[in-house]
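Sat 14:20. Reprocessing the chain from the morning session after the first attempt stalled halfway. Input below, unchanged.
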Amino acid sequence: MNNDNKLPISLNLKQVNPLPGRIKKYFDVCLEKLGLIPNVLLAYSHNTDKLDTFTNMYNEIMLSDSGLSKLQREMIAVVVSSLNKCFYCQVAHGASTRELSSNPELSEELIMNYNIANITEKDKLMLQFSEKLTLYSHTIEDNDRDLLRKAGFADEDIWDIISVVGFFNMSNRIASGTKMIPNKEYHSAGR
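Finished this time. Tokens:
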């Protein structure tokens, strides 16, 4: 970030200065674990209450205990972000997908056409549901949930699929609406 605290978005907002200690500590953990502070967090740093809300929701949906693996949640994030043409999230979560899968091609397959990806039929059904929920949420019916149940997803897992889809439909719109720029490190991660 440059010296004037300009955020990685196309809005004239500045980072809170000074950042509260808890936010500095959180950013230090990001640097230690990821080697960077994700630009989405920097973008939210203009309002620490909004940053807290975003990180709490992200951590609960993407990192908490779930019947869905971290990779499955990242795959949903990539597919939803691809459908929404969200550059930031395709790049950031594509990097996570590559790293978690140890498959440098997987994120590109998911972005272009998840049906050609070398994934399980269960995961394809999960992504088909995610696509339908993203593009045609009003058409979701009991049959759609039943297909997931038959594939082996528990109702708690279906809730988690829906939560990931909902979260990324929201954050894709924020990232696209603000022209959020992905960290350049994401482009080479997992390759």
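Residues 71 and 101 are 7 Å apart (CA to CA).
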